[in-house]
Design brief:
Chain B: Pfam families: Biotin_lipoyl. Chain B: Keywords: Biotin. The complex is a heterodimer of chains A (449) and B (70). Chain A is α+β, with helices and mostly antiparallel strands and 449 residues long. Chain A is 34% helix and 25% strand. Chain A is globular. Classes of the chains: A alpha+beta (449), B mainly beta (70).
């Protein structure tokens, strides 16, 4: 096992990784921007180094500087967390080229899955059902219009390099598609440096359900059940839970089989997530693969009792998985809510200083948080300030706990989405598990007017 | 003269108008980036852009002046 690793991230996920490292007796090196100098991920690490000014492009994305710090500090491996450089194949390769271990899959696997068009091709070849659509880059708006006519509106226009809902738009007609093509291509080029666009058929009222897998270097792939992540706003997840209240035991087994097959077909190692859309008939379609730890990994940890960060570290250090698919069991039901610094009505961000913070405590309530009273939510980073995970004996129990916990979660000084989360958690349709990706616009937004 | 102000802190991502240009009320003049989201800032009145007070990449605070419209 490693003696020292560098964590190339910030916020709650950096703290989460430090925690497991402390349990395993691994020393941690963290990096920080000038805006994060007083952060908990700096204080809790064994050592920490400034990598530049606040904007991520000048700090947390400075690959060469980060690798130089890893080398200088004597770290043996780099954990990228999620976001930032976690799915950057160049970074993964540069880490390896510097003689360090990248805690994640091989760079070429990251590259293949990072291109959604390429991922669709690879999955289709592996016999995994994919959302009907094109597996080639669209040349221009005219070609997009021609393709859309073939599948029929509505269609999803997507950026191949996209993520976090950026460069993606649901389109209902030809004229909108022409406009959307150029604007989304521009945004994708700006955000990802790649304006490759493609089109998928729109699946009506789908559930977003993903399968967590973990794979070691010997080729053993173990699925760790699914997460239902359908409650989203601005195409970003807000509430995630495990297991899914929607799929049947039969569908679950088929999805886990498909995820194992998908991961094995690309020689995947370490923790990864295969995202599927599932329609009302329980047909599922590959959407994309996330080649990293997910924000919502704690719900899987809660129901399986496994520490995913620990297994990421063990696998990266060359260990084999100590369990088989049959040996992994699940207990209870876990729900995670993401607490965002944002207006709960417009979903616009709400940067500022947190003047007071009070977290609900109790059995089955877990917090992943990197802020405290006095912390500043700067405009430079993601609006997610914390996650709360509640675990109950069953879904009903977890939902009850969630309501009580949310009602006692106090953040002052900035706006948060807690009123929205409370509204959703109390909604009959949520309690019944009827959570399609249209949930927010069907059941939340109309209540605001 | 009216001054278009920032509705929140962020970085100027795009300046959509140039000095001397005519704008109408509700038209976006600047796009801020805050917490990885684009925030369009619109002119409140019709008029001619007298002065653009920010450049792309500038960090601005809430209520900072962005554009003067006359």
């Amino acid at each position: 096992m490693f003696q020292k690793i560098l964590i190339a991230n910030r916020g709650e996920i950096a703290r989460r990784i430090i925690r497991t490292c402390q349990t395993l007796g691994i020393e941690t090196v963290t990096i920080y921007s000038e805006a994060d100098a007083d952060s908990l991920h700096v204080q809790e690490a064994t050592e920490s180094y400034c990598v530049g000014p606040a904007p991520v492009a000048k700090s947390y994305l400075q690959m060469d500087d980060i690798i130089a710090i890893a080398k200088k500090s004597g770290a043996e491996a780099v954990h990228p967390g999620y976001g930032l450089l976690s799915e950057n194949a160049h970074f993964a390769q540069a880490v390896v080229d510097a003689g360090l271990v990248f805690i994640g899959p091989h760079a070429d696997v990251i590259a293949a899955m990072g291109s959604k068009v390429e991922a669709r091709k690879r999955m289709e070849q592996a016999g995994i059902p994919i959302v009907p659509g094109v597996n080639e880059a669209l040349a221009d708006a005219e070609e997009a219009v021609a393709v859309a006519a073939r599948f029929g509106y509505p269609v999803m226009l997507k950026a191949s390099a996209g993520g976090g809902g950026i460069g993606m738009q649901l389109v209902h007609d030809e004229q909108t598609l022409r406009e959307a093509f150029d604007s989304n291509q521009k945004r994708a080029t700006n955000f990802f440096g790649d304006g490759t666009m493609f089109i998928e058929k729109f699946i009506e009222n789908p559930h977003h359900i993903e399968v967590q897998i973990i794979a070691d270097a010997s080729g053993q792939v173990v699925p760790l059940f699914e997460r239902e992540c359908s409650v989203q706003r601005r195409n970003q997840k807000v509430i995630e839970e495990a297991p899914s209240p929607f799929i049947s035991a039969h569908t679950r087994e088929k999805m886990l089989d498909a995820a194992v097959k998908a991961a094995a077909s690309i020689g995947y190692t370490n923790a990864g997530t295969i995202e599927f859309l599932v329609d009302s008939e329980q047909q599922f379609y590959f959407l994309e693969m996330n080649t990293r730890l997910q924000v919502e990994h704690p719900v899987t940890e809660e129901i399986t009792g496994l520490d995913l960060v620990e297994w990421q570290l063990r696998i990266a250090a060359g260990e084999k998985l100590a369990f088989t698919r049959e040996q992994v069991t699940r207990n209870g039901h876990a729900i995670e809510v993401r607490i965002y610094a944002e207006n709960p009505v417009t979903f616009f961000p709400s940067p500022g200083t947190i003047t007071a913070l009070s977290l609900p405590q109790g059995e089955g309530v877990r917090h992943e948080i990197a802020v405290q009273a006095g912390s500043v939510m700067t405009p430079f980073y993601d609006p997610m300030l914390a996650k709360m995970i509640v675990t109950g004996a069953d879904r009903y129990d977890a939902c009850e706990k969630l309501l009580v916990a949310l009602a006692n979660y106090k953040v002052e000084g900035i706006q948060t989405n807690i009123p929205m989360l409370l509204h959703i958690a109390a909604h009959e349709q949520f309690k019944n598990g009827h959570t399609t990706t249209k949930f927010v616009e069907q059941y939340y937004t109309p209540t605001l007017t | 003269m009216t001054t278009v102000k920032a509705t929140m802190a962020g970085t100027v991502w795009k300046v959509l108008v140039t000095e001397g240009q005519h704008v109408t009320a509700g038209e976006d003049v600047v796009i801020l980036e805050s917490m990885k989201m684009e925030i369009p800032i619109a002119a409140e009145t019709d008029g001619i852009v007298k002065k653009v007070l920010v450049a792309e990449g500038d960090f601005i605070n809430v209520d900072d002046n962005l554009v003067e419209v006359e």
